[in-house]
Amino acid sequence: MTRGERSRPGVREELTVPGPEEMRALGRRLAAVLRPGDLVVLNGALGAGKTTLVQGIGAGLGVRGLVTSPTFVIARVHPSLTGGPALVHADAYRLASPAEVDDLDLDASLETSVTVVEWGGGLVEGLTADRLEVSISLAEPVTVPGGTGGVPDGTGPDEEPRTVRLEGHGARWAGLAGRAGRVRWATSGNNPAGTGRAAT
């Protein structure tokens, strides 16, 4: 791949996701466009919803096994039950350098699997020039009627809305970008994953 191809603009989208079920729904919608060889890099604070998103991806891909945080085993492979690609779910939280990522041999299965790496920013970009980076954070508080803002009483941190920012890199994701860089799968039709807009 040439330097020019690496710099091609890809998808850029920002979504507001109301809660865990909608985050899983977003994962299922994302799974619909993922294919063997795709690398998804997830970033966000502890409890942001990264593993919840991967649960939706796993459900959408139809893989075997419960998708949980792989922090202590570093990586898990979930074979497909439908003849599609396996899901390789890795967690780079305890890794300090790209050299430690190399020890996981993620590149050995990269071309035949969908690889999702939590806490992967700054560590796994060398695996491939084509990748989708997903950043999850708490959404900005909203003003509620008769109040000063925030979330309704009785809503715990897990149920608070999240802002999900997606940014594609490389020719693979440039091909999926619609007008203004919007992700066709994320904002078309009846979208259960929340509201979206093109990132700026």
**SS content category:** alpha/beta
CATH class: Alpha Beta
CATH topology: Rossmann fold
CATH superfamily, by name, is: P-loop containing nucleotide triphosphate hydrolases
Overall tally of structural domains:
1
DSSP strand content: 25-35%
Q: Give the overall shape.
A: globular
* Chain-averaged pLDDT: 81
The first-to-last residue Cα distance is 26 Å
Main beta-sheet annotation? 8 strands, mixed
> Helicity level, as a percent range?
10-25%
Number of helix segments?
7
Walk me through the structure.
- With 200 residues, this protein is α/β, with parallel strands linked by helices.
- It is built from seven helices and eight strands, in the order H-E-H-E-H-E-E-H-H-E-E-E-H-H-E.
- The chain has helices at 3-6, 20-31, 50-61, 98-102, 106-109, 171-174, 184-187, and strands at residues 9-17, 39-44, 75-78, 86-91, 113-118, 131-138, 162-169, 195-198.
- Strands 3-4-5-2-6-7-1-8 form an eight-stranded mixed β-sheet.
- A hairpin with a 7-residue loop joins strand 3 and strand 4.
- The longest helix has 12 residues, at 20-31.
- The two termini are 26 Å apart.
